[in-house]
Amino acid sequence: MDPGVVVLMSPPKAKLFSSKGLSKQDMEQRIWEGATLPMKRFKDSTYWRSFIAPDLKGKLSYGWPREYLDKPDDAVVQVYPRKEVRIIVVGGEVADMMQAWRMSGPTTVSIDKWK
């Protein structure tokens, strides 16, 4: 599973952005630019431990910049590699909406502790 963001956009919403001169690539760029966190908060996340750190150590190849290893805690960084931000236009002429989810690998826990 790739770490990234997928935005499901209705055709009416896509037409609205297009009428304002924005392409799908323009919207993906805006989403990527706006999805940020301070470095300290980012490094404290499971996302960092599961995807970014292994990627920067050469175990994965998602595309985070190597300079993330040297960024100060107060630096604001993008949380997704640019190539992992996608917009998919779905459905017919439906409600004027869009949805996005942050996805990661499934998690399992033992229920024995709860018995």
Q: Describe it for me?
A:
The protein is α+β, with helices and mostly antiparallel strands. It folds into 2 domains: 1-35 and 84-104, no CATH class; 36-79, no CATH class. It is 31% helix and 18% strand. The strands form 2 sheets. The chain has a 3-stranded mixed sheet. Strands 2-3 form a two-stranded antiparallel ribbon. The two termini are 32 Å apart. 10% of the residues are buried.
What is the structure about, briefly put?
By secondary structure, the protein is of the alpha+beta class.
Record the strand order, biggest sheet: 4-1-5
Q: Which stretches are low in confidence, meaning pLDDT under 50 for 5 or more residues running? A: 106-110
Work out the number of β strands. 5
Give the percentage of residues in beta strands: 15-25%
User: What is the chain-wise order of helices and strands?
Assistant: EHHEHHEEE
> Which outline best applies?
elongated
List the SSEs and their pairings.
Layout (H helix, E strand, L loop, with lengths): L4 E5 L1 H9 L4 H11 L1 E3 H5 L2 H11 L19 E3 L6 E5 L8 E5 L13
Parallel strand pairs: 1-4
Antiparallel strand pairs: 1-5, 2-3
Q: Which terms would index this structure?
A:
5 strands; 4 helices; alpha+beta; 18% strand; three-stranded mixed β-sheet; elongated
